[in-house]
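Consider the tokenized backbone below.
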């Protein structure tokens, strides 16, 4: 399996759910899709009741306009049902199910979920679904465009800066900002390593 993942990593996405408890002890579920080769987060969705239809819709949104992987790694959760499998098949995606009780089979996605919890959610009180969605969208932007990854030799998942040049100088005097904003250290935008001075 390891050799397969190394040779096909650019064609593989992995997905999983992260359970979150809000301030009122109600369950929320965040669904993530991660590209294995670049560690880029492709999609994030949040719901209180993840059904097969909802999960299938998340896959549809992630594979819009014919963009998608050859393979999708997922676990054996019941949230991935017949509708999810049908959407994957019509999108040309082959589903790879992980073995039971084998979290290392989806290690990159599991490690990402740990990063979300440690770097983001452990520091916040979540009140409702919309707030969690906004927080995770901001973290996804930070993770994709500013956070270095050990598995990529400290490279950033997406090397293109998605922020306009007019945003960068506004942040340059504030040191190091993060979570969805431009990351600036000194006079250099870390997103695109463009000099701002």
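A designed sequence for it:
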């Amino acid at each position: 399996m390891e050799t397969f993942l190394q040779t096909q990593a650019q064609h593989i996405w992995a997905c999983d759910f992260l359970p979150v408890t809000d301030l009122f002890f109600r369950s929320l579920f965040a669904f993530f899709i991660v590209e294995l080769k670049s560690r880029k987060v492709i999609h994030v969705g949040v719901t209180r009741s993840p059904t097969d239809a909802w999960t299938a819709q998340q896959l549809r949104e992630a594979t819009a306009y014919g963009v998608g992987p050859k393979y999708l790694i997922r676990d054996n959760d019941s949230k991935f049902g017949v509708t999810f499998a049908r959407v994957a098949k019509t999108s040309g995606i082959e589903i790879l199910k992980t073995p039971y009780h084998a979290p290392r089979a989806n290690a990159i996605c599991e490690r990402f979920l740990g990063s979300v919890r440690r770097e983001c959610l452990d520091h916040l009180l979540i009140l409702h679904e919309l707030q969690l969605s906004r927080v995770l969208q901001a973290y996804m932007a930070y993770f994709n465009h500013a956070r270095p990854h050990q598995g990529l030799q400290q490279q950033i998942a997406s090397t293109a800066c998605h922020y306009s040049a007019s945003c960068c100088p506004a942040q340059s005097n504030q040191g190091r900002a993060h979570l969805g904003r431009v990351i600036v250290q000194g006079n250099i935008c870390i997103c695109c390593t463009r000099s701002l001075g």
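The longest helix spans residues 129-145.
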